[in-house]
Write a structure and sequence with these properties.
The complex is a heterodimer of chains A (about 350) and B (about 200).
Chain A (H helix, E strand, L loop, with lengths): L1 H39 L15 H10 L11 H17 L18 H11 L1 H10 L3 H32 L4 H6 L14 H14 L11 H4 L9 H26 L11 H6 L5 H22 L5 H28 L8
Helix pairs in contact in A: 1-2, 1-10, 1-12, 2-10, 3-5, 3-10, 5-6, 6-8, 6-13, 8-10, 8-13, 10-12
Chain B lengths: L1 H22 L3 H21 L3 H25 L4 H6 L5 H18 L6 H6 L10 H10 L3 H22 L11 H6 L2 H4 L10
Classes of the chains: A mainly alpha (about 350), B mainly alpha (about 200).
């Protein structure tokens, strides 16, 4: 009984160790996004609260916390309240299987890749529930767009992951990283380059970020699915969106950029020079690269039109993945060095 | 002990939400309960160490099929009272159907009919046992013809669905990208020289 209790406390501690830094990362991701966007627009961005604007996320959080939560009178109150919770819960639960370093994982499950795929596909329900329960045209339109978009891009994303699990011969995320050992050229981004690109594009589409942010589309449908939300209920949608962005970045690093592995592995001088750097630093650096890419895309590209998104998803990305799955099969069959020996 | 507890909690949840699917009058609410039912049965499969099937159930049914279902159902604005009236109209037929179904299941699920496979799988496989691999090996060796047959049937269904909905002369205004790209200045622009009037 005592053993069970200790195990339980240990698990809760580990969860906190992941969840609290995640919330911190989300908060500072919002600041980073505003700063990077500002510099892309030749502005300065938030610089008043704290030193160089570093306390801005806290000020934003405090403001949202004290705002009134309004539930529209014609809304379905149960679903309306549940929607942001579902959104955030699915975004947070997927972190259970992400390996931060060798052995640093909350749940080292065999079907980790499938688990992540299943949970990210659930994220759309938060948006659907919000759109329907708000009883508002704009919210419903946002939810409809999001549902169609997520279903289309999930197929491309799933096929891209099929390529990875073929190459790694495993669905355990830790094994997938360990299979990529041997330096920059051994990571899966090179043999699976088209799948990597497809995965990243569909990851951006799945998180409803620019240039695929039609679910929000502030110029056409006000703010899409969360138009009726205010205060903390809005903030939780925001948290979920950023947690999902960070999750997709973490997954892209694990699957295609060798997770916690050092890029200098196997290079004579640099390899030993950088061997002191703990793996988690490399992991965070790779995640930071993808997160920067998110903001960069938002600053650069205009929003896609709805039919163009569908065209890209069904007629470009899915055929590319199908072709490359066959190519991956051949690469494995012919034991192409250095990846598939 | 804990496993039993989880089983009973989720089995109760499954039965409860499955009942709500047919009892609730609002179609969206029924769809939500169906999602809960899928998730609960995924947990039950997980208890059987069938993690591949469990996660696939969530990924395919909850993540994709039900999303499209909700897409349609949310658009409907059904008259709730008219639905309520017809609730028991087909009751005798439904009872007959359920009795038949239960009969067939009881007959088919006898331990003898499951063959050697039903006995070979222990409820607690070792940690390195991969359900995904075992399933793949079985599907592509022992059941390869049945598997290919199912694939062909699904392909036919896809082709049929596209054939039914995709007509050449449709009334919707579609974008013709090739025509747009092929357009030249001469097609679009006409320069008129008008005499200035005094």
């Amino acid at each position: 009984m005592i053993d069970l209790l200790i195990a339980l406390v240990w698990i809760v501690l580990k969860i906190l160790l992941i969840a609290l830094p995640l919330l911190g990362a989300v908060a500072y991701m919002t600041l980073a996004e505003r700063k990077i966007l500002a510099y892309a627009h030749v502005r300065i961005g938030p610089n008043r609260v704290g030193f160089a604007g570093l306390l801005q996320p806290l000020a934003d959080g405090l403001k949202l916390f004290f705002k009134e939560i309004i539930i529209p009178s014609k809304a379905n109150p149960v679903v309306f309240v549940l929607a942001p919770i579902v959104s955030f819960a699915t975004a947070a639960a997927a972190w259970a299987v992400i390996p931060f370093d060798e052995g640093w994982v909350l749940a080292n499950v065999n079907a980790g890749l499938l688990y992540v795929l299943a949970l990210t596909s659930l994220g759309v329900y938060g948006i659907l529930m919000a759109g329907w329960s708000s009883n508002s045209k704009y919210a419903l339109f946002g939810a409809m767009r999001s549902a169609a978009q997520v279903v289309s891009y999930e197929i491309a994303m799933g096929f891209a992951l099929v390529g990875v699990l073929m190459a790694a011969d495993s669905t355990n995320l830790q094994d997938i990283v360990l299979r990529q050992q041997g330096g920059l050229w051994h990571w899966y981004w090179l043999p699976l380059l088209p799948l990597f690109v497809v995965y990243w594009i569909s990851g951006v589409a799945e998180t409803n970020r620019a240039p695929f942010d039609m679910a929000e589309g502030e110029a056409e449908i006000v703010a899409g699915f969360h138009v009726e939300y205010s205060g903390m209920s809005f903030a939780i949608f925001f948290l979920a969106e950023y947690a999902n962005m960070i999750l997709i970045s973490a997954l892209a690093s694990v699957l295609f950029l060798g997770g916690w592995l050092s890029p200098f592995e196997g290079i004579p001088v640099l390899g030993s020079l950088f061997s002191f750097v703990p793996g988690i630093i490399w992991f965070f650096a790779k995640m930071a690269f993808f997160l920067f890419l998110y903001v960069w895309l938002r600053a650069t590209l205009p929003r896609y039109r709805y039919d163009q998104i569908m065209y890209l998803g069904w007629k470009v990305l899915i055929p590319v993945t199908i072709v490359w799955i066959v190519v991956t099969g051949l690469l494995i069959e012919w034991r192409v060095a250095p990846w598939f020996i | 002990m804990i496993e039993k507890l989880i089983f009973y909690v989720f089995a109760a949840l499954l039965i409860g939400s499955a009942t709500m699917v047919i009892v609730s009058r609002q179609s969206v609410r029924a769809a939500f309960f169906l999602i809960v039912a899928f998730c609960a049965s995924a947990v039950l499969w997980m208890l059987l160490s069938a993690e591949f099937l469990a996660l696939l159930l969530i990924f395919v049914y909850v993540g994709a099929v039900m999303t499209l279902f909700m897409f349609v159902v949310m658009m409907l604005n059904l008259d709730q009272e008219s639905l309520q009236e017809k609730f028991v109209r087909y009751l005798p037929f439904a009872v007959l159907l359920v009795a038949l179904m239960v009969g067939v299941l009881v007959y088919a699920m006898k331990p003898g009919h499951l063959g050697e496979l039903g006995l070979a799988i222990s409820p607690h496989p070792s940690a390195d046992y991969s359900n995904t691999k075992a399933l793949g090996l079985l599907l592509y060796t022992h059941y390869v013809y049945a598997f290919e047959l199912a694939a062909v049937i699904l392909l036919i269904a896809i082709v049929a669905a596209i054939g039914l909905t995709h007509r050449e002369k449709s009334r919707n205004k579609r974008q013709r990208i090739d025509a747009q790209l092929a357009a030249t200045k001469a097609d679009r622009l006409q320069i008129l020289q008008l005499e200035a009037e005094k």
